[in-house]
Amino acid sequence: MKGRPFSGTMTPSTLISIYDAAFSKDHWRNALDMCARSMGANGAMLYEFSNLSQVNFALNETNSALHAAADILSEYNQLLADGRGSNYDQEGLGATHRADPFEVVLDTDIWQLDESYQARPEVQLGIRAGFLRRALVNLSDDPNTFRGAIFLYGRQCDAAVPQQAAEVVNQLGPHLSKAVELNRFTVELRRRYDAALAVLDKIDTGILILTEAGEIILKNSAASEVLAEGDGLSVGPDKVVSCFAAEAEAALKDAARCLAGTAVGENDEAGRIIQIARKSSKAALVAVVSPLRDAEMELERNLTGALVTLIDPQKPMKIKSDVVAGAYRLTVAEHRLVDFVLKGLTNKEIALELDVSPETIKSQMKSMFEKCGCRNRVSFVWRVFQFAPPIF
After folding, report:
1. Domain identity same for 176 and 211
2. What would the pLDDT profile of 55-89 be if each residue is shown by its tens digit?
3. Three-state SS string across 96-115, please?
4. Is the domain of 205 the same as that of 77?
5. Domain assignment of residue 184, yes or no
6. 377-387 and 332-342 helices cross at what angle (nearest 10)?
7. Quick one: 331 and 220 in the same domain?
8. Are residues 218 and 119 in the same domain?
9. What is d(CA 117, CA 171) in angstroms, rounded to the nearest whole number?
10. DSSP element (H, E) containing 335
11. Do residues 252 and 276 make contact, with C-beta atoms less than 8 angstroms apart?
């Protein structure tokens, strides 16, 4: 099996297919077919594990070529479950997640593709399915999550193709990551309520859907409460979102325009995080803006726009901080900070609460952010939100 002709670019239709899959795993096959075509690959699959002892590849997160080899994929998973493998995936995925997010790791970066390599049981099964070469991509900046994509090539693949594919991954990677993140957010809704966006009122945090012009076309109860307060964020008679701070309003409207464009393949931005200052002295709202494409048409035919998640530090999320602390191996001192950060307290305010110096808090905060793979408070709040979506 030779590799497909290498397109070397991400087309608008590829981008649209990725965000179609964000709200339904039923669309991943088409999305991964498009990604594989862009990468010049034959096979493509996604994976996500909390640790490398639980490796098991899901058929509904593979492309058509791997669907056609479903029996071999099942045999592969059984090989791993029975402990008859050679730790091939532990080696490969471990190396991938030591790389930076969206960096391509080639098989030749990890192994020598000699006879002993081809004799490994996992590789033998791949060869039976028509695959030998592979390129792996880390899709997670979370140190406790092994999330990525694997692109598979035939035995006679041009050795230069995976190298050229690295350029495409720089474009594809952030969008694949965002789509998986959005799908993870809605999968619990789908499992519990057999719906995704139609049950937004089951989410105990503000959710808005905006058109590219910033018009609110859907909001849940939590978002309605935020808008009714008018403290930082409100809605005008034209249904267009408005912010107390002109700078924040311009940023939010620009994000809605750009991210709505991403959903229809007009640009390649994957998301933004915006802080919205308030009239009062309360901590700023955090708005996480993502592309929306309602591929399931549960709301309105061909609906596209921007999905805005509003996080209010004054209304802490109902999350057990000990679960977060355990997942990221936080120390007792770092664990104490989680709830304070979610409440929006400053370092100085936390120091007063705990009767320690602000420098101590600053040092502990830095360590906590590093363990969670976050750059700042805003990204930490979003990390916690992803870790445990506030669904009741």
Report:
1. no
2. 999 998 999 999 999 999 999 999 999 999 999 99
3. HCCCCCCCEEEHHHHCCCCH
4. no
5. yes
6. 90
7. no
8. no
9. 31
10. helix 332-342
11. yes
